[in-house]
Design brief:
MYOD Basic-Helix-Loop-Helix Domain, subunit B; elongated; mainly alpha
Length: 82
């Protein structure tokens, strides 16, 4: 099942609320709370795998732009000193 960004975020939020409610009602170590926690972990992992790639790529591009900008500042100085 392929979910879009907002659907997956909503599902994560709903699962988080179920887990919190279960923990408040039955305790942190109840079977239901642990099951909700594990299901939440899977949803968060799915989110990171599906949508995290885009974020990492954008971060890599920002880093490359930063490096390139500083290289442009350094190269002319290096050429003058040759």
């Amino acid at each position: 099942m392929c979910r879009n960004h907002n659907e997956l975020l909503e599902e994560i939020q709903e699962k988080r609320e179920k887990m919190i409610n279960s923990a408040q009602k039955s305790g942190f170590t109840s079977e239901d709370t642990i099951r909700y926690s594990q299901e939440l972990d899977k949803l968060i992992f799915e989110y990171q795998c599906t949508f995290g790639k885009h974020n990492r790529r954008a971060e890599e591009v920002r880093e490359l732009k930063y490096i390139y900008k500083h290289m442009m500042l350094i190269w002319p100085k290096a050429l003058v000193n040759v």
